[in-house]
Structures are given as structure tokens and as C-alpha cells.
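Section handout 9: paired folding examples.
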Amino acid sequence: MTDPKPKALAQIDACAQASLALLLRNLTPSGILAASRTEAAEARRYTRIFGRDAAICILAMCGSGDKLLEQGSVASLDALAAQQATNGQIPKYVDPDSKDGDFWYLGCIDATLWWLIAVDHVRRHGLVGPTHWQHEVERAISWLMAQEHPYFRLLQQNEASDWADIMPRSGYVLYSNSLWYDVKRRYALDHLEVTHHHFNHLFHPFQRDLPEYQRARLLQHYARRGRRDSGMYLSFVNLAFAGNEGDVFGNVLAILSGLASESMGHRIVKRIAAARASDPYPIRVVLHPLSRQHELWRPYMARHQQNLMHQYHNGGIWPFVGGFWVMALARLGLRELAWQELAKLAHVNALADWRFTEWLHGQSLEPMGMAGQSWNAATFLLARRALMSEESVWQDRSR
């Protein structure tokens, strides 16, 4: 059996309609907002065009067949490009009213990565010409190249400077480098295979063969020391420490981008399933949340009591990541499980009269964060599209 039961299919279809309606509600002439306009969302600046949020939404909006959403894809990329820094970095977010851009405390590395992925997607769908935003693309790639190690060919970053912006991942970060590999494939950048090689040796340092480069061998040894092979990639690797908390999003992106072999992909899925990370809803983003006693704990994680254990990026349930989880299952041929997870995703989005909540507490399941989260709707539509038409935004990168 690969198709969902009629009751589940009805809720999946209802979620698809609600998702399209939410994206249209959150669309402005300047682009797609991260969340619906509420007093709380305004106070927390969720009513902005975020580089990562908008780009993920664009993957679903462009190709949706809705003219307004497809126009909004171009408008969103335009708004972010207009505030690009002189060094090429794309802002974390842009205010659609004042047009000001924000670049976060230590720099936001993934906004530039996601923006490039979305540009390629929009170009491929023919909404713009193949060289549209070319100057901005070249500057963005140049900025990322300046963050790339000249031998590892992996990006380096500060802690708390990607989507998990109050987590202590730094140095070489799994999530960011999964995106970097995808960008390199889409734009036919140099040293793709070197990036692939060092990615799999550094973030999964339990293989017997060793890299030729001495520093890579040493760093692999440091990352492996005192750890067992969990069946997943490490969340980050730095000189003196590494992350073994079980980063679900980074591992799922490694599957989708083609960095994980098929066997590694199935190992990752088996490990996530064994941890019941999608029970009852897809999906907890950390398998082993960091406590205050953990060596990686940082005082800023307790800011606003937000990133405590089982909360926010530290083990909360994020439905938008659940959409990527479903797509990864589909990519690995696990269609029956993917349909089951998509039905659960429809259910969690429907809670509280289609709240599309940002995240839920990993244990109590209490809905938390902002309502009307745009990327929840977008990744649900992408996951449904991957299962219904076997069309994936991650598979066709041929030039």
C-alpha cells in the first residue's frame, strides 16, 4: 500500500487548500512574509521578508500555477536582492515597509544560500531569464567562497548564525554545508567532489579511509574521539568540539542534496524513526536536547526561556522541517511511510483551526511560536507534490 486512506487523503487535500490560502494571505507587493500579521508577529518582526523563509516558500510558490504566488516569488527575491550588502551577503530579513535589511549579530550565512537556491528554481521555471539577478548571484557566490576553506571546500561560520540561531553550532556546520553542496551543484561551481568527500569524512568521521590532507585527517580524528557512530552526521565540527545531539534538519538536507549515499540515507531514517522524532507529529529537530549541564550549553540559549530542553531549536517539533522529512522519505523510495507522515503533518497544521503553528513543545506538544507560519504551508505543498507527481525541487540540477 502506498496511497493514504480516504480520511487521511481528505485532510491532506484540505491542508493543501489551506496552505495555498495562507501563502496568499501572507503575500505582500514586496514579497512573502514569514508569518501572518498579528500583534505578536509584528512585535517579534515575523512580518518581514526573511531570506531563508521566503526562499523556502518560493520553492512551493513558483510552480504552484497561481499567478499571484508566482509573481510574489520574483518580488521576494527582488526585495532581498535590493538590500544585498556590498560584499555580496543577502540579509537575514528585509522590512517590506521601510525596505531596511538586517544581517543578524554574527552574520546570517544561510539566507544567502537559500536565496541562491530560490533564484535557480525561479530561473528554471522560466519566470525570469537565465541571467536575471546575475550580478547579485555572482556577488553572493563570491561572498560564500570567502567563507569556504581552501582545502576542505566546506563553509566556515560563527555559532548561532544560521536557522538555529540560538544553538552553539560553529566551525563547519552540517546544515549550512548541505545547502552549500546544493548551491554548488545548481551553479556548477568548482570542487564539487572535494566538498562531497570532506563533507562525508568530517561530519561522519567513522570511515576507515582517510583524507590525504593532513589537517582533514586530524580534524576527523578529533571529531571521532570519544564518540560512537550514531548512524547520523554530526551537527557541526570545530577544532575542540563537535555536535552529537542529532540534528534532524541537517541530516535530512544531506539526504535531499545527494550528499548521503542511499545506505547512509536509510541509516539516518532508521535512527530518526527509532528515536520516535515524528511521534505524534513531524518532526523534532534534535534527538538529544542539550541540558544546562551539557558541555555545549551556552547561557544565551536560556534567553527568554526559549531554547530550554525540548523547546525551539533544542528539541521542539517544527512542522516545516516535517515537510523536508517527508521529501527525504520519498527520495529514498519509502513512499508508504512518507504518505503516513504527510497525513500527520496535515493534522498538526490543522490544529487550533488551521493555526499553522511555528513549533510545538517536544514533550507537552503545546503549540508555541507564531501562528500562520508561511514555510509550514510551503513545505507541506512541496512534500505533497513530491508524493503525488514524484516531482522534487532537489533532483533536477542538470544544465
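Moving on to protein 2 of 2.
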Amino acid sequence: MSQEKQVILEDSIRKIFSKEDLKQRLSSEDYERYQSATENVKFHKGEILFDEQDLPKSVFYLHKGTAKLSKQGAYGKEQILRFIKEGDIIGYRSLLCGENFQAKAEAMTDIEATMIPADLFMHLLEYDSKFSFVMLQKVAFELGESSNTVTFLAQKTVRERLAEILLLLEQKLGTDPEGFIKISLTREEIANLIGTATESAIRLISEFKQDHLIETEGRNIKILNHEKLIKLGHVVL
């Protein structure tokens, strides 16, 4: 999905959860139910929103902060699936499939979110057509992301993967006032994202710095040359 379409989807998700839009769309009874049943919750960095095999009891809409969705592999190694930022929603896939959570959601920063009970979420899907349509768009978007990830891991070199993942992280999460991508990742987490050993990721990051493609400050990364990274990663944004 292009950056423009991603922004449109993100705006649509924010709008369907805005108080003004909810009040306009829902019946007075459903709006009162939403107000009384939902709960504003906070998670500190490192806390778990939900874990693998937990029973889906709620869906989370993030107002502030970033979380990562990951899954444990056969040998106990964590695989990061995607990142969830403010204005995004998480926890609905397993609920819709009628199964326990198949992944873990962990706060990467402090998080503020609205917790929507499972029965209320399903009720909104059934009776709120606008809500259903936006959620359908989101499912389709994430299906496309999954297809791209398969191609990304299967056909690109590790160097190309690093270039692409840095661009995608910046596109999805944005940058701080100093231009650093708004997420602090360990070298092990970066290696996990691009499917390589931690040592290889460290070496590649060092090479990117020497080539003046990026700048690092601890765990934070700033892209210095977008054009070269786009060419290197054969990326279509």
C-alpha cells in the first residue's frame, strides 16, 4: 500500500473511534453502551497487552505509544510480526477467528489505549456499517502486508532487507523532531525483522553508517539518504 493510502486508512480508523463520530453514527443506546463498557487503560514500556494463547476478551485502540506484535517460533526465538502505533487497533484478528491469541502484544513505549470488550466490538461490527467497512479495509491492508513480507524475506538480500525495513519503519512510525525514527530497537530486534543473525545486522548497520546512509544515536536511527536507500532496497513507497 502506498503511503498516501496508508494515511487515509489511519485517518479512517481514528475517525471511527472519535467521540464526535461515534455519537453521530450510533444509536443513543449503543453510544451509552460504548461509553459505559469501554475502559481507558495504560501500559508501561515492556508490559504485555496480551500474550499468546490468552483468550481474546478485549480489543485495544491505541491513543498514544507504540506496541510490537510478535510470535514465538519452534525454538523459542521471537519473530516480530508488525508494529502498532497510536491511532491503530490490535487484538481483533483472533477474536474474529474465534481462537486464542496467536501472538503477543508488548508495549515498546508507554501506552494509553481504549479497551473495547469483545462482545461490544462484535456488536459494532454487526450493526455499524461504517465501522465494519473500515475494519474490512484494515484486514485487507494487513493481508497485503503479510504477502509483501513473504516476498521480502524470500527474494531480497539481507542488505536490501535492512534498507527497506528502515524506510518502512520511518513511513509507518514517523520521526521525532531530530529526524530519528520513532522507535528504539535493539540490534537483535533489527536482526529479527530482516531475518538474519544479530552479528550480521550489527555489521550492516555499521556499513550503512560508513556510507552515510544513516546516523545512529544509541538504539535510535536516522535516515540520511532516502534516495540511496530506496535504490538499494528496490523499494516502492
